[in-house]
Design goal:
The complex is a heterotrimer of chains A (248), B (231) and C (637). Chain B has 231 residues and is an all-alpha fold. In chain B, 68% of the residues lie in helices and 3% in strands. In chain B, helix 1 packs across helix 7, helix 1 packs parallel to helix 8 and helix 7 runs antiparallel to helix 8. The radius of gyration of chain B is 20 Å and the shape is elongated. In chain B, 31% of the residues are buried. Among the domains of chain C are: 135 residues, Flavocytochrome C3, Chain A, domain 1 (Alpha-Beta Complex); 123 residues, Up-down Bundle (Methane Monooxygenase Hydroxylase, Chain G, domain 1). Chain C is globular. Classes of the chains: A alpha+beta (248), B mainly alpha (231), C alpha+beta (637). Chains in contact: A-B, A-C. Chains A and C meet through helix 1, helix 2 and helix 3 of A and helix 3, helix 5, helix 6, helix 11 and helix 12 of C.
């Protein structure tokens, strides 16, 4: 199939960006979206043009490195799927595809479609952990954990930190990302001692990074490749309020 | 207190709580005005009854004013923060699961504010359509009171006023339907067991409230409520 | 090059505890005077950086990703082994030790493997304490499943995302120490070289992948946890950025590289769909529990699978290995698929695939039961191939997956360069010639949490090296060399993309040094690689500039190292005149096609020493003594 791509090109963080239009031909429907971009880049290199920078790594939907706003939807039109697992058979011959980077003040563009998501790391560094120094652990079965809690914790922990929630949110809010971690650790007995300190520290860092606020539109859940529920955000709000009332 | 507005979550909670007070107000306000259907006497007596509350009325007004200020201040604060959070817009951006009303809260909020100013100017301050705002009515117990019945009914005999009212109310409905469900989420309640119920209540309640409000000018238009010529 | 494995004396059960006692300690007040560099933030790297910082060392931690959480440990699906014996099915440290030695085809060092089995117990405890959401029973206790190569149920898992959950555990421990200031984290910084001062590893040179800046960092010891080299084959299940550069640069600076020919080929991956293929996706091995593997009996039979009658199908694993059938070990299943395809009976595009058919299982158990077991895998398969595996058989083919070889380390995880420690998949130590499923995660975390925190103290307490800084000639020279290489790559402006060279090398390696190898093919590869390398340095085209994000430049640097590394790998495969584990030499097989080990001549780790570009490296041998496990032939008939 033949496609027309409108791709955001930007030299570096401070440079002005613009859209460039490219034609790609003879794209196989079996290709992944990123392989289609590989083909474009090979052709660009062979023509002596600077290839398009986009981030990717595991290409099996788990590392969270790939991003891309594909026709206005993070990770493209396929529900619960990262861009690397999106395949070209979801598109039609002759389609026009607009490809943009994640857009948020907290995610500055480094080049083309590559953005800096280190704000997420800084939020985790403030409290997205259980303090258990190596060597302190009791036996793994010392504290049984009810299966529903363990399952919910797992579902929240499935977050891959890709930033699609921020990209999808009309306010560029990181609430789903933060809430997923707050819930994951806050549900487990091991996470109780730091539960309220954690939520306070993480939410405050989230605010400091310049993310927007949650206005409950839930596009984050719709865009999340791991389909993490906004239920976690309610839980974070509750924990945060409790923490504030208790003076944490 | 100021610290609350440094946190997006607390600001949201302030917004939710103040909004909740206004949801209560809109229900109470509607129930009061339903007395229009009970006739001029009852309605005017209700109007006078409110006035007779004296300091209590002012207490209520102060609560509503504070909630209003809190609600709009939080809203403006979050809005400006949210605009700042995405300095460069997308060229193509599609909603995924979000509803139009959830995305248009600021717009419907501003619409609502405009409506309130007009509504107060019309019925409370008597600045617009002033010709009906100083009539008196004598209750059966002989007291001469403000004839609010005539003021309201006469006000809605203007087609344009009615049309504007209905449009404003549709905007209010949009605001309300997202608001009711949103309050529940913001205050930390979300469970698969009752989520669909919350959604139904939010939509049902906002529909009832809006239909209730629209029923007043509609009744005037249809001649169900009419001027009586007064006393 | 001297290979002193420093295996502690005494009975195997007490070697590690005795050794921990014998190791010299650094007193708590002095620890903060030592700086340790950790390169890589996968399971081994993140665990090491966090644990060392907790002890009080100053840690500088580097990753080329935008975040430590992206490391490829994240992609491991199946689980992590530990000899907890929670199932009361007779598991023990000794049994895990035995299974690992045997699974590794008797080419691993006993003492290391025993230690691994011992600390496996602590790993689970540690991860649970960190909040890793392992699967649990309704009782609230941890759940286990069984895995290949073991007769007990000892694998802990978190659905199909165990690697992700363990990595996030290690990442959160690391993040905590970054937050407290004990670890200085450097993201988007790729290690380009190792700096030696007075023969000791004292620092590294990095390139910032966002700004292009070349910098150097000084420390008292360096830990490499930089993963494996499966991407030498171009197509593998590894992530796109996985590379051998850090380990290879250390090798060029004098670290011995052990057993590079031990590579693991995973039997159940989704086959290549065309020339555009950029990587291969693994489908969990568990599928072989219910799927039957077959190819048409006739060569070139391209009828759709549903039209091939039962008696014209060859269920070759069931035919050749009646007792293990479709569940025969990874290396055997992989090789048999290759044989069938080489015979012209492969299916799908290019004829490189075999069917994994669930029709029987579906008619026996119903589609619902199969969906409950493998639903997510079936969905993933359908997403990638566009075919519905409930209706048509899956197509699978083996793919490079893990590399058992790596930098040689002694019992303390120190390489032949003093101060250079190597952890996780980057070292060679624990899996011998073949790794068992669910053991990679175990080894990474064992090295990071429970081995290096003890052994590095022993080194630091004894090394007594003087202070260094990045203004020293050694550092400046290394920075200069790196800058020159980058400038060279940018200036060639030839006609071919870095990817095209990678693909060419990968195809050659896969063909000659892949699932099955022979003398002639390996010699051809050794002849051909230098020619590709030469063309690379004359004809590669790296566009864009070096002072910005430039993935072509990153790739070019990595491919340049693969082009040298591949040659060493072939030398290793050529010299090892036997078949063992992941190394199958066609000349050395039994009459019915099974691997033929040669314990008399090859019961050693082959360690290669760099002698210069294009020159054959020198071989050194660490002989392996098997005192606790009897050497035996593996049989799965």
């Amino acid at each position: 199939m033949n496609l027309t791509l409108h791709i955001w090109r930007q030299e570096n963080t401070t440079a002005e960006g613009r859209f460039s239009t490219y034609r790609v031909e003879e794209i196989s429907p079996d290709m992944s979206f990123l392989e289609m971009l590989d083909v474009l880049n090979e052709r660009l290199i062979n023509k002596g043009e600077v290839p398009v920078e986009f981030e990717h790594d595991c290409r099996e939907g788990i590392c969270g490195t790939c991003s891309l706003m594909v026709n206005g939807v993070p990770h493209g039109p396929e529900k619960g799927t990262t861009t690397c697992q999106l395949h070209m058979r979801k598109f039609k011959d002759g389609d026009e595809i607009t490809i943009e980077p994640w857009r948020a003040k907290a995610f500055p563009v480094l080049k083309d479609l590559v953005v800096d998501r280190s704000a997420f790391d800084r939020i985790i560094q403030k409290g997205g952990y259980i303090s258990a120094n190596t060597g302190n652990a009791p036996d793994g079965n010392a504290i049984p954990i009810p299966k529903p809690d363990a399952d919910w914790a797992f579902e929240a922990a499935a977050c891959i930190g890709c930033g699609a929630c921020v990209a999808a949110c009309k306010n560029a809010s990181a609430s789903l990302f933060v809430a997923a971690k707050v819930t994951h650790l806050g549900l487990l007995p091991q996470g109780q001692p730091e539960r309220y300190l954690r939520v306070t520290a993480m939410v405050e860092q989230m605010d400091q990074e310049g993310f927007g606020s949650c206005t409950n539109t839930y596009d984050c859940e719709g865009a999340c490749p791991k389909q993490i529920s906004v239920r976690n955000i309610a839980r974070m709000n509750r924990d945060y309020l409790k923490a504030k009332i208790m003076g944490n | 207190m100021i610290g609350i507005f440094r946190s997006t979550i607390l600001t949201k909670i302030a917004m939710a709580l103040s909004g909740l007070i206004w949801i209560g107000f809109s229900i109470a306000h509607l129930s009061g005005h339903f007395l229009l259907f009970a006739g001029q006497e009852a309605y005017n007596a209700y109007g006078q009854g409110l006035k007779d509350l004296g300091p209590l009325l002012w207490l209520g007004r102060i609560i509503f004013i504070i909630s209003f200020l809190l609600h709009s201040f939080s809203g403006i604060l979050l809005l400006s923060r949210n605009k700042e959070a995405r300095p460069v817009q997308y060229k193509a951006k599609k909603p995924i699961v979000s509803t139009p009303q959830s995305r248009m809260m600021a717009l419907t909020g501003i619409l609502l504010f405009t409506f309130m100013v007009y509504h107060l100017a019309h019925f409370t301050w008597g600045v617009v359509h002033a010709e009906y705002s100083h009539l008196t009515y004598t209750l059966s117990d002989g007291r001469a009171v403000h004839d609010v019945y005539t003021m309201v009914v006469a006000g809605y005999q203007n087609v344009f006023v009615c049309l504007a009212y209905v449009l404003f109310m549709l905007g209010f409905g949009m605001h309300l339907s997202h608001a009711i469900a949103s309050v529940v989420q913001t205050l930390g309640f979300n469970h698969p067991m009752y989520n669909s119920l919350v959604k139904k209540v939010a939509n049902g309640l906002s529909t009832i409230i809006i239909l209730g409000y629209i029923s007043i000018p509609a009744s005037v238009m249809l001649g169900v409520l009419k001027l009586t010529g007064g006393h | 090059m001297k290979l002193d494995s420093k295996i502690p004396s005494g009975p195997i059960e007490s070697k590690w505890s005795n050794h921990k006692f014998d190791l010299k300690l650094v007193n708590p007040a002095n620890k903060r005077k030592y700086t340790v560099i950790v390169v890589g933030t996968g399971l081994a790297g993140a665990a090491a950086a966090a644990s060392l910082a907790e002890l009080g060392y100053k840690v500088l931690c580097f990753t080329y990703h935008d975040s430590p959480r992206r490391a490829h440990s994240i992609a491991a699906q199946g689980g992590i082994n530990a000899a907890k014996n929670y199932q009361n099915d007779g598991d023990s440290v000794h049994r895990l030790f035995y299974d690992t030695i045997k699974g590794g085809d008797f080419r691993a060092r006993e003492a290391n493997v025993h230690r691994l089995a011992e600390v496996s117990l602590n790993i689970i405890d540690q991860c649970v304490a960190q909040g890793v959401p392992f699967a649990r029973e309704y009782s609230g206790y941890l759940s286990n499943r069984s895995f290949g190569g073991a007769q007990v149920s000892r694998t802990f898992y978190a659905r199909g995302q165990t690697g992700q959950q363990l990595l996030i555990g290690a990442y959160s421990a690391l993040s905590k120490m970054v937050g407290s200031g004990a670890v200085k984290l450097f993201t988007r910084k790729e290690m380009m070289d190792l700096v030696l001062v007075n023969g000791h590893a004292r620092g590294i040179v990095t390139r910032d992948l966002a700004t292009g800046k070349i910098e150097s960092f000084a420390a008292d010891a360096v830990c490499l946890a930089t993963g494996g080299y499966s991407n030498v084959f171009y197509l593998s299940t590894n992530a796109m950025a996985c590379n051998v550069t850090a380990a290879f640069r250390a090798y060029k600076k004098g670290a011995g590289f052990a057993n590079p020919c031990y590579t693991q080929i995973h039997p159940t991956c989704i086959p290549v769909s065309g020339d555009h293929q950029s990587k291969l996706t693994l489908m969990s091995e568990s599928l072989r529990n219910d799927g039957r593997i077959w190819v048409p009996k006739k060569q070139g039979d391209n009828r759709p699978p549903s039209q091939i009658p039962e008696d014209e199908r060859d269920y070759y694993l069931e035919r050749k290995y009646p007792s293990f059938g479709n569940l025969s070990p990874r290396d055997i299943a992989s090789r048999s698929a290759k044989e069938a395809c080489d015979d012209g009976r492969g299916v799908g595009p290019g004829g490189r695939g075999v069917y994994l058919d669930f029709a029987d299982a579906i008619s026996r158990l119903g589609e619902k039961a199969i969906s409950a077991r493998y639903g997510n895998l079936f969905d993933m398969y359908q997403q990638i191939t566009g075919e519905n595996p409930y209706k048509v058989p899956m197509r699978i083919y083996p793919a490079p997956h893990y590399t058992m070889g790596g930098l040689w380390v002694d019992y303390n995880l120190m390489s032949t360069i003093p101060g250079l420690h190597v952890l996780g998949e980057a070292n060679f130590s624990d899996h011998g010639a073949n790794r068992l499923g669910a053991s990679a995660l175990m080894q990474g975390l064992a090295d990071g949490y429970f081995v290096i925190p003890y052994t590095i103290g022993g080194y630091l307490a004894e090394a007594k090296q003087s202070a260094v800084n990045t203004d020293m000639t050694e550092f400046k020279l290394a920075v200069k060399q790196t800058e020159e290489q980058i400038a060279k790559l940018i200036s060639i402006k030839g006609k071919r993309s870095p990817t095209s060279f990678h693909r060419e090398l990968g195809l050659l390696m896969w063909d000659k040094c892949g699932m099955a190898r022979n003398e002639q093919g390996l010699k051809q590869a050794i002849d051909k690689i230098p020619a590709i390398r030469e063309e690379f340095w004359q004809n590669v085209n790296v566009l864009g500039d070096a002072a910005n994000v430039n993935q072509s430049l990153e790739l070019a640097g990595r491919v340049a190292d693969f082009l040298e590394f591949g040659e060493m790998m072939c030398h290793d495969a050529l010299h090892r005149n036997e078949s063992c584990g992941g190394h199958f030499r066609e000349e050395y097989q039994t009459e019915d096609g099974e691997a033929k080990r040669n314990d008399d001549e090859f019961a050693y780790a082959g360690v290669w020493e760099y002698t210069g570009l294009g020159k054959k490296p020198n071989l050194h041998k660490e002989s392996l003594a098997f005192e606790n496990v009897k050497l035996a032939t593996r049989s799965y008939k």
